Hints:
The protein is mainly beta.
Amino acid sequence: MKKLSFIFSFLFVATMAMAQQNLREGYVITLEGDTLHGMIDFRTSAMNAKRCVFKENGATEFKTYLPGEIDSYRFLHNGIYYVSKNVLKEDNTREMVFAEYVIRGNMNLYQIGSYEMLLVDEDGNEASFSVTKARSAKSQDALREEMGDVWKMLSKSEKAGNMIWALNKSRDNTKKTVMTYIDDVCTDGHCEVFEYRAKNTPEEDRAVHPWVKVGYKATQYKFYNDKTVTGYAPQVSAGADIHWDRLFKGLMVNVGIAYESAKATSDKEKYLRVKFNQLDLMLGPGYQFQVGALKTRVKCGAIYRAFSRDFAYPWGNYPGLDFKFDEQFGLYAGAGLEIPLKKFSLICDLDYIYDYNIHRKHYYPEKTKVLQNGICLSAGVKF
């Protein structure tokens, strides 16, 4: 167990040490109005609101800009557009943030972080509110207090004022509300309105990548009486790698299911044999990084044995045992290689599995532990 803890610690440190930027093309507009083109680190909405990590074309180093140090930044191809904004907080203090510009007109709409929407009218009046699911659990009095300033700003349009009270308020519904206000108030059609349609820009890499693999696993069972058996089992597995590059470049979550069936025999006592069928569910974090044209990855996580049927053949004077494990859990750690091709990638993984299983044996009322260690070499395709 100490060895496995060391492996987990090593993988975590290696992951942190090899952090990368999730770069996209974009530009920065300085306070003096100059436009600088280069690469911008594309992160989550909450992270993008706090800083802009930028490397100008031709430069060798990245520079981090905080809100207020530049006028704005934007990703290319009509990407998300962030502007420095001095916003009013709940405690009546002000804070500089990068707010996403959503709609520009006689009523401006911004998004701050993941859930906060900000309205600013032509006179500079502002009001903000949250679009989280928690709104639906609030009472009408609580909503009235939260949305009172927003309703006042939209009062020139009765329709928009009614729309803002919707419990299922979302970004899209808020955009519709603001556009309704602009249409009602600007009846002559001469108001300048621009909607920054950046829903899918900058283009994000596909987050979920399914995979299938076949492998071969060497396993050792250690029973309550210190007897051990070893065996080999073919394994079939399937799952998906879920990438979170906007949160942490290279970070992924590994989800999988594996089935194996094998026989194991004691090297010293040939009459001691175990046959097992297992269906394992696996979940854990991983980290992937580029090495030339190849991708390498490390991973670790937990295993839950959803189904296990073991048959322990006779040893000593006891008849054969047929039992299911009462509690089944384990850990895994491994490393792998990915070779990208046009439509899919070839993958190869080497995993170490440690299972700590507790069963209730027929002839003994006490719980008895069975340790299972295994090494699995597998290969397959990732889509």
